[in-house]
Amino acid sequence: MQPALYVRQKRELAELFGFETRNKYAISTSDRQEVFYAAEQRSGLWGWLGRYLLGHWRSFDIAFFDPRRIEVFRAHHPFRFFFQRLEISTNGRLIGALQQRFSLFSKRFDIVDDSGNLVFEMKSGFFQFWTFPISRGAEQIAVIEKKWSGLLSEMFTDKDNFRVSFQDASLPLEYRMLILAAAIFVDLQYFEKKAGN
Fold it and tell me: Domains of the chain: which residue ranges?
């Protein structure tokens, strides 16, 4: 129930040489205590080909682990060229999803519960390149912000850092899971190198 979590992508040495590797993240509190780890699950030749040829359009799973390496929840991204989707589940039970919506000048996602009901909206305006507010109606309940990783990291790797701030302290744990998964989805959708680059 922290007011903010920090998502730090783990750098892989192979990325310095242009190879896309499995995405891995450390998730910590403001006092740098690591509370979760997240890692893309597809490895091997097929996983590498998918990352290299299809970029963020590929099908993949990201598992979220506690510090004892026990899986707490999982995010599944089905293969799609348009209107990306991320489905979040815990113990095999769907808890919700992020669904990209059509928008000309902004980045827009609906966050829905397990029945498909709209819970929150994540919308980043045209000039809000690194900020993704999450709202329930007119009330902002959380915000995802990309933080500067340093010149060399920004230029040569996919290593990104994000802060997830929860403005509504009463948010249930499952909604916090959806928002945390949204932070990683933002990274994969907008900051990972795309296929063919």
Answer: 4-191
Q: What is the pLDDT of residues 4-31, one digit of tens each?
A: 999 998 876 555 555 556 789 999 998 9
User: Residue 41: exposed, middle, or buried by beta-carbon count in 10 A (0-12, 13-18, 19+)?
Assistant: middle
Across the range 41-61, mean pLDDT stands at 67
Q: Which CATH architecture has domain 4-191?
A: Beta Barrel (2.40)
Cβ count near 29 (within 10 Å): 13
Instruction: For residue 2, give both structure tokens.
Output: 């922290």
